[in-house]
Write a structure and sequence with these properties.
Elements lengths: L7 E6 L12 H10 L3 E6 L4 H9 L5 E8 L1 H13 L6 E5 L5 H5 L6 H8 L4 E9 L2 E3 L2 E5 L4 H4 L2 H7 L2 H10 L6 E7 L3 E12 L21 E7 L6 H9 L9 E6 L2 E4 L6 E3 L2 E2 L5 E13 L9
Parallel strand pairs: 1-2, 1-3, 3-4
Antiparallel strand pairs: 5-6, 5-15, 7-9, 7-13, 8-9, 8-12, 9-10, 10-11, 12-15, 13-14
Helix pairs in contact: 2-3
């Protein structure tokens, strides 16, 4: 644990993230920061333009930390700018999206005061960052059927139902899926598969599916690949329920492995998604920035180094 000098806090926020936690608590957030002796520099989310400008000009020595208020997509934009401009300030999270998979991994609660206790604390832990075609992702890069579930789900439904909205939307997509041929090249093997859906995960959850990769770690320098192979469509529904409960890695219809450097190719034009937003085109080249982030965590609930 390192004692940090008082100074400024850069507050990067998305006023329209799912729960509205920021716009309903802006004054309270600033008050809590000031009580700790910090001046607040607010930066409003605007397609990454303003955070990019702010971090390109920042004097890192004047700041104690960056606090992000928003969902995984907002954190993704901030982390990409941090990596682009070689910013190594520790990162505090105020989860304000629908799924909040990054915050869930680090056991950061959605209660505003509990999240602020963590973000304004002193305990941090390291976290890997995934990279695909030069673009960073904090949780997941996905491709294939249902890849755009989070993008298609009605914002009002997400606000009302939370992660249940993702499950309901995913169920409606099942009749439309078709197998996609892919080739995966690692340093050890070449795999050719026909898959319905594939995710490359840094953490254990994505899109509200909390146990998509139950054994994944953001601190092991590896990415977890989970793919649903071509199967009779009647087996897909039961598999989806296994995924919800984290019982799918041993299923014969699931391809699972870990790697830190690999390429995925396909002859088809497959849509991709990174942290809930549109992702890059094929071929996809994956790597890991090992322990690139310092993330504030709770001293009471987080027990990992």
């Amino acid at each position: 644990m390192t004692k940090r000098a008082k100074g400024k806090v850069l507050l990067y926020y998305n006023a329209y993230s799912g729960s509205g936690i920021f716009k309903n608590n802006l004054d309270h957030i600033i008050e809590r920061c000031q009580e700790k002796g910090y001046l607040v520099t607010p930066v409003r989310a605007a397609n990454g333009v303003m955070i990019d400008r702010a971090l390109s000009e920042i004097d890192e020595s004047e700041y104690s930390r960056i606090i992000v208020a928003g969902g995984d997509g907002t954190i993704n934009i901030c982390v990409n700018s941090m990596v682009r401009y070689d910013i190594h300030l520790p990162l505090g999270i105020l989860p304000a999206g629908t799924a909040n998979d990054f915050a869930f991994y680090f056991e950061i609660r959605s209660d505003i005061d509990l999240a602020l206790d963590v973000a304004l604390g002193e305990k941090t832990t390291k976290a890997d960052v995934g990279v695909v075609n030069g673009q960073c992702f904090i949780n997941v890069c996905a491709m294939g059927a249902m890849v755009d579930v989070s993008q298609k789900t009605d914002p009002n439904l997400k606000n009302a139902l939370g992660t249940l909205a993702y499950y309901l939307k995913a169920a409606t997509e099942i009749p439309q899926i078709h197998p996609i041929p892919i080739k995966i090249k690692t340093t050890e093997q070449v795999l050719e598969e026909k898959i319905y859906f594939l995710t490359v995960l840094n953490g254990e959850s994505a899109g509200g599916f909390r146990k998509l990769s139950p054994n994944a770690s953001m601190q092991d320098g590896m990415l977890d690949v989970v793919a649903f192979r071509k199967m009779p469509i009647v087996e897909f529904g039961p598999l989806l329920f296994e995924v919800i409960n984290g019982r799918h890695p041993e299923n014969k219809n699931v391809l699972y492995f870990q790697a830190e450097d690999f390429v995925i190719e396909s002859e088809e034009n497959i849509a991709t998604d990174t942290d809930g937003e549109k992702g890059p085109d094929f071929p996809l080249r994956f790597s890991v920035l090992k322990k690139r982030l310092d993330v504030f965590v709770s001293e009471e609930t987080w027990n990992y180094d």
